[in-house]
Amino acid sequence: MDNARESKYDSVVQSLADLNGLVVRQKAQKAEILAQAPEVPYEAENKYKVHLLPTDKAVQTTSYGPKGWEPTNEDLEKMDAFLFAQEKSDLFMCAGSGGVDVINRPFRIGGCCCCPLEVHLDSVVNGPVQRIGRVREDFSPYLSRCCASICMAAFYTDIDRALPGGEYEKKYSLRVNLGCCGRVNNCCAPSCCKSDAIFDILDTNGAVVANLQQAYARDRSCIGACCRSEYNFNNYILGFPPGTTVNSCMLLLTALFQIEYQLFETKEK
To answer: Cα–Cα distance between 172 and 160 in angstroms, integer?
Structure first.
């Protein structure tokens, strides 16, 4: 790796070590919107801009009580990009700091079929590929998770760091509740009816240590935000647990991309 790329990577690492969250915005792609109208089977490669969460802003933690940040579309468009991520047609995603971290998605058919969805996060900073960790659909115990997904629209994802010898250790769990059941009522969110959906990041004891916010991001005309929501070009605000390492930050970002793929891509896509 050349010196310029190493310097850029070091800058990214230092920034991640100093911040408390990220803002992720999927790019709206007109060709995909036009193809979906007549149900043409076409999907553009997803593209995302990743921004630093401003230090004076906080992720929402609940639908009630003190509110966190509810960004508008204009707020998000003004933010400077920190990283870029783009889905590749050969089934991997690449975080855009010179191809430093790669998210690889092996073929899986889903936890309900006893084959949980899984992605791997690898680093290629110093030549050889180094496994950072994985993000894996949590379907254990099987019957309990099936009931949660079918009856309560609640989905769990494990975030595991890699250990020597090819083993993994669970670091966090992401709980995505899409209905009115659970700690937060996310029914009809995010939409013009309810601006934000709030998901929980849990530690290994099941305690909530941070949150992921899916934001509607209203605009002045309401048309742009409504179109983005209708075609699932989503906005996220990802909070980091206190004391999170740089690798854990990247694994949490990987978990965001995983649930975006699993739960928020349209059936046509």
So the answer is: 7
What is the per-residue pLDDT across 202-252, written as a single tens digit (0 to 9) for each? 999 999 999 999 999 988 877 778 878 877 889 999 999 998 888 999 999
Question: Which region holds residue 195: left if phi is over 0, alpha if psi is between -120 and 50, else beta?
Answer: alpha
Q: Is the dihedral of CA 229, 234, 235, 236 positive or negative?
A: positive
Spatial distance between the Cα atoms of 232 and 95, rounded to a whole number of angstroms: 21
Q: Do 87 and 257 form a contact (C-beta atoms < 8 A)? A: no
Please give the helix or strand (H or E) that residue 98 lies within, else none.
none
Range of the domain at 49: 3-263
Q: Is residue 268 part of a domain?
A: no
pTM: predicted TM-score of the whole model, two decimal places = 0.87
Residue 167, token pair as written in the block: 């083993």
The CATH number for 207's domain is 3.20.90
